[in-house]
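Input record (one chain):
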Amino acid sequence: MLKKLWEFRSIIVVVILGCLLISHTAVFDRFNPFISETVSYAQVPTGTQKYKNVKIYNHKITKLKSYRLHNVGGYDPSREYISIKHKGQYVKSIKYISKKDFVSKVK
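The corresponding structure, as predicted from the sequence alone:
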């Protein structure tokens, strides 16, 4: 009986780790220990506070990242450039920046 319980627990752990490695959603990425927190930059449309499929730029790589952030929430619909602190698809915080800062960080 104890051996079956141990096997069941180990299967659960393997399934959870597999989900963390394979799935890229905000919930899984938030708790995934294999994804590091990074700061990226983006140009977003004005007139809205909900940004979808945002192309992000990372100043360390100096080119477009291979993925987009699915959902990013903002708080100032009149601003266009943001700095995003994120961990995969999980967005921890955003900060609005000037166009001058955006251009200097992306180049």
